[in-house]
Design goal:
The two termini are 28 Å apart. A hairpin with a 7-residue loop joins strand 3 and strand 4. The N terminus and C terminus are likely disordered. Helix content is 38%, strand content 16%. It has ten helices and 15 strands. The chain has two domains: 207 residues, no CATH class; 123 residues, Immunoglobulins (Immunoglobulin-like, Sandwich), CATH 2.60.40. It is α+β, with helices and mostly antiparallel strands and 376 residues long.
């Protein structure tokens, strides 16, 4: 509990095809054979889809040898899914033999043509802004100019990735708000304890805000007032005297100790040393391991980088606040020895408070946050 602690730290499928070729023997055959071959060719020609089966445009008579030695051409048309021509599509012809690629652009009617195409296998790559790239294989036959069926470019699929998340600062702020709902028995502030094992680190502004809210909490003020009353009754700090004046001095000194130690040990030094002033509740393991963890947390703390380290903020904060208290305590209750003595006592009290946090206070604290929350 903060009130118990002087220094809270608390890619398409590849369709291989060969361009059907009518042999010279078939062309010179009987009409019935010619008819049968024609039917076979029609049966192999696709009626729908994009499979680039190349249809041969052969003459009814054998080509002269000179024509067979000439270069071939390859042409086609690029359309969109509605059948409209795609203008300006980049059409690249690649050869597996490593020869230079050829590239053309589809015309206003979507057509394209390659000349001087050597026979052999090829691959076409068709791309255009707003469309998915198509890659189609094929084979050019000797002496057979080839015309591909219409090639349909599907529309590009737009994948939008929306990353929803919060910043570390925002997460820490949310966790602080939950901490500020932590009150033992529903009313005693217990702000400097987090029940989230890997809670987001606090920045300096958040550390000061937590210290301020702890200091001005009405219950914190009331507890200091009660402590002053006990001191008055037992005549502690006798130099303050008795009566209303003596009580006012005791209350002022008690509240000053609380506020100074809270700000120095819970905000100023944690900001300087980049340490977290909160106690990180363990809640798992054997009772012995939890007890050792709680006691050790009197002199160690978690840094803003998530690593455990010596609690410079808490220890030095106790020394600093003790030194400042020499300005307002009675002469008989001052001195360097008392400062270090009180610091050692404060460390012991912190260890005791941590044991209570680990084994008792959680059971008495409603509105606890979900322990599954974590740093992003």
């Amino acid at each position: 509990m903060s009130f118990l602690r002087n220094a809270p730290r608390l890619a398409w499928p590849r369709t291989n095809f060969t361009i059907p070729r009518l042999s010279t023997r078939a062309l010179l055959g009987l009409p019935l054979c010619l008819f049968a071959c024609a039917v076979a060719v029609l049966a192999q020609s696709p009626t729908t889809g994009n499979a680039p089966v190349v249809q041969s445009q052969s003459s009814p008579s054998p080509k002269p040898a000179a024509a067979q030695a000439s270069s071939d051409s390859l042409s086609g048309t690029v359309i969109d899914p509605t059948g409209m021509p795609v203008i300006g599509a980049q059409v690249k012809l690649s050869r597996p033999d490593g020869s230079p690629d050829q590239q053309v652009v589809s015309a206003d009617d979507g057509s394209f043509s390659f000349s001087n195409v050597r026979p052999g296998p090829f691959q076409l790559t068709i791309s255009c802004d707003g469309f998915a790239t198509q890659t189609l294989p094929g084979v050019v036959r000797v002496g057979e100019p080839s015309h591909l069926p219409p090639i349909t470019l599907p529309l590009a699929t737009v994948v939008a990735e929306v990353h929803v998340g919060v910043s570390t600062f925002e997460l820490a702020q949310e966790q602080i708000h939950e901490q500020e709902e932590q009150r033992v028995l529903g009313f005693v502030p217990n702000f400097y304890v987090t029940y989230i094992p890997n809670a987001a680190p606090l920045n300096s502004r958040q550390k000061f805000s937590l210290a301020w809210k702890t200091t001005i909490d009405p219950v914190s003020i009331g507890l200091n007032a009660a402590a002053a009353g006990v001191q008055q009754a037992t005549n502690n700090f006798a130099g303050y005297g008795q009566g209303a004046q003596g009580y006012a001095k005791r209350f002022g000194a008690s509240y000053a100790d609380f506020a100074i130690s809270t700000f120095i040990g819970g905000a100023i030094l944690p900001s300087v040393f980049h340490q977290d002033p909160r106690y990180f509740y363990k809640g798992t393991g054997t009772k012995r391991s939890r007890a050792m963890y709680a006691i050790a947390n009197a002199v160690i703390c978690k840094g803003d980088n998530g690593h455990w380290q010596f609690n410079y903020s808490g220890v030095l904060g106790s020394v600093a606040s003790g030194g400042i208290s020499n300005l307002y305590y009675p002469a008989g209750d001052r001195g360097a020895s008392l400062i270090f003595e009180n610091t050692a006592i404060g460390i012991g009290l912190n260890a005791g408070a941590n044991l209570l946090q680990e084994f008792v206070i959680r059971k008495l604290t409603p509105n606890l946050p979900n322990r599954s929350q974590a740093t992003p």
